[in-house]
């Protein structure tokens, strides 16, 4: 059992086998598009963010690319990463800069892409590892916090025991002024069936098949103008940056169509094995590097965004059951009067059951002043 859980009392359970869809279940579709809420870059060291953020650009590389001398795993203390007490606070600090007038009263779900991937695997009764998510409610909005036994994973991702991070670093470059970034995070708003969702995720790269990095129209000039005028995590936005922010927001919307996920392996991983991750992040490009003992000899770039509609049609039932799971989690958390509970899936229990417990620690999803600001009139 995970720490910080009152395990003696189960507040609710969700059985994957019991997710029976009614005939009038809303269709899940990406056809309505998405809106960019905000973006930010974590800086090396993991203690501050810059917002608006900018993703690293994919650059032309020569093959073979030898990375055999690269460190193969990211030590847990490499960047001494620090996660705030409120894990979604960086998101809202970025919103203060990019969308200060935005209100979240009509948002149903705020979560990380990783949580959606775990929950769709659960609701589809497919194989998955143990996972935990923290559930917190603000008014009618359910926050689903990712929870890892090592908190640094939340910022920088899972430990790379292969050459993935080394390949990513060798093949991408951040624009001038953001070269001290350790990662780029994007936050999108889109409907999931009849739920309004805000989803945060990391973007590996920006891929543009029609121009070289740094060409006219790239984000380099904007990021240079933004340098020294961005905000870090504990600060709020500066009105003087409004024209820069507006420009960066539009650039962000354009660059979402160039967002790319990078995968590596000794064999070419089929693109359909990555579709859930790509679909939830509305990430149209998949870049796969193939290596032999750290020497990369093949790179395949595919525009998988063209397959989103076909994929969601083929997986409509699974997506609808995900929506049902999200609704049930929100209902259980709301009944507790503000949430502050924990949902846990344990494979050792022998059944596809998600159990919800009360959390030991009392906390809110966000600092009180943020709740008042973004859920106010």
TrEMBL record:
Region (Disordered), start-end ranges: 209-245
Biased composition (Polar residues): 216-241
Name the record gives this protein: Uncharacterized protein
Organism: Clonostachys byssicola
């Amino acid at each position: 059992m995970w720490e910080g859980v009152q395990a003696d009392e189960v507040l609710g359970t969700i059985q994957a086998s019991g997710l029976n869809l009614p005939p009038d279940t809303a269709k899940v579709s990406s056809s309505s598009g998405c809106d960019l809420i905000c973006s930010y870059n974590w800086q090396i060291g993991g203690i501050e963010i810059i917002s608006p953020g900018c993703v690293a650009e994919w650059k032309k590389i020569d093959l073979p690319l030898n990375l055999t001398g690269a460190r193969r795993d990211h030590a847990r203390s490499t960047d001494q990463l620090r996660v705030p007490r409120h894990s979604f606070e960086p998101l809202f600090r970025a919103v203060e800069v990019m969308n200060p007038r935005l209100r979240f009263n009509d948002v149903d779900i705020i979560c990380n892409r990783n949580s959606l991937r775990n929950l769709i695997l659960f609701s589809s009764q497919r194989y998955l590892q143990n996972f935990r998510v923290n559930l917190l409610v603000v008014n009618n909005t359910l926050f689903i916090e990712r929870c890892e036994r090592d908190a640094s994973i939340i910022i920088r991702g899972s430990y790379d025991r292969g050459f993935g991070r080394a390949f990513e670093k060798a093949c991408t470059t951040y624009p001038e002024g953001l070269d001290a970034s350790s990662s780029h995070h994007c936050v999108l708003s889109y409907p999931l069936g009849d739920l309004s969702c805000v989803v945060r995720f990391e973007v590996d790269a920006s891929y543009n098949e029609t121009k070289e990095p740094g060409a006219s129209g790239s984000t380099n000039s904007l990021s240079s103008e933004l340098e020294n005028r961005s905000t870090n995590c504990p600060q709020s936005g500066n009105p003087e940056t409004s024209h820069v922010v507006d420009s960066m927001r539009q650039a962000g919307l354009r660059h979402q169509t160039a967002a790319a996920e990078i995968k590596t392996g000794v064999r070419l991983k089929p693109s359909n094995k990555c579709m859930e991750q790509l679909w939830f992040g509305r990430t149209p490009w998949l870049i796969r590097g193939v290596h032999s003992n750290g020497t990369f000899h093949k790179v395949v770039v595919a525009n998988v965004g063209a397959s989103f509609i076909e994929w969601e049609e083929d997986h409509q039932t699974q997506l609808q059951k995900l929506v049902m799971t999200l609704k049930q989690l929100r209902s259980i958390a709301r009944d507790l009067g503000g949430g502050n509970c924990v949902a846990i899936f344990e494979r050792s229990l022998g059944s596809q059951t998600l159990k919800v417990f009360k959390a030991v620690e009392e906390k809110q999803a966000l600092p009180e002043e943020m709740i008042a600001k973004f859920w106010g009139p």
